[in-house]
Design a protein that fits this description.
By secondary structure, the chain is of the alpha+beta class. Helices cover about 30% and strands about 20% of the residues. The protein has a 5-stranded antiparallel β-sheet with strand order 1-2-3-5-4. A hairpin with a 3-residue loop joins strand 1 and strand 2. Helix 2 crosses helix 3. The chain is globular, with a radius of gyration of 14 Å. The termini are far apart. The mean pLDDT is about 100. Bound molecules: adenosine monophosphate.
């Protein structure tokens, strides 16, 4: 079971953003920016391009809804989207609020937030989620 499957099952806590029958979304614990969010399929598949077409298409549409919610809450120019997947072997999309290209670099120092700050960000994005 991947760490993300444990999060989806509620065995490991997360700052949840949104969920439907196929996907779960939560704040990245080591964020590049305030509001850096992950979208994960409930189906545990390592590599995103091994997902079936239906799940992959729906994952993009779910990510769009999450991105729109983040945009309403976090001061940024737009939401950058990327897939790395070298650390956690469970497909996930990174949604990252950015104002410049360099904000997308995974070489950047990660932001630090208290659990209270994480919860505050998550609850605002949750409220903005339609
Ligand atoms: P990658 O697999 O290279 O896309 O990186 C995995 C991402 O998942 C990193 O940005 C981590 O900070 C994030 N991550 C790992 N474990 C957790 C967790 N328990 N809760 C939230 N985010 C996590």
């Amino acid at each position: 079971m991947s760490i993300f499957s444990k999060i989806i099952a509620g065995e490991i806590p997360s700052y949840k953003i949104a969920e439907d029958e196929n996907f779960y979304s939560f704040l990245d614990i080591n964020p590049l920016a305030k509001g850096h969010t992950l979208v994960v399929p409930k189906k545990e598949v390592d590599y995103i391009f091994d997902l079936d077409d239906d799940t992959l298409s729906k994952m993009m549409l779910f990510s769009k809804k999450v991105a729109k919610a983040i945009e309403k809450v976090v001061d940024c120019k737009r939401i950058g989207i990327t897939v790395i997947g070298l650390e956690v072997p469970h497909a996930h999309i990174h949604l990252i609020p950015i104002t410049s290209e360099s904000d997308m670099s995974f070489k950047n120092t990660r932001k630090q937030f208290s659990s209270q700050e994480f919860e505050e960000i998550a609850s605002k994005i949750r409220e903005a989620f339609e």
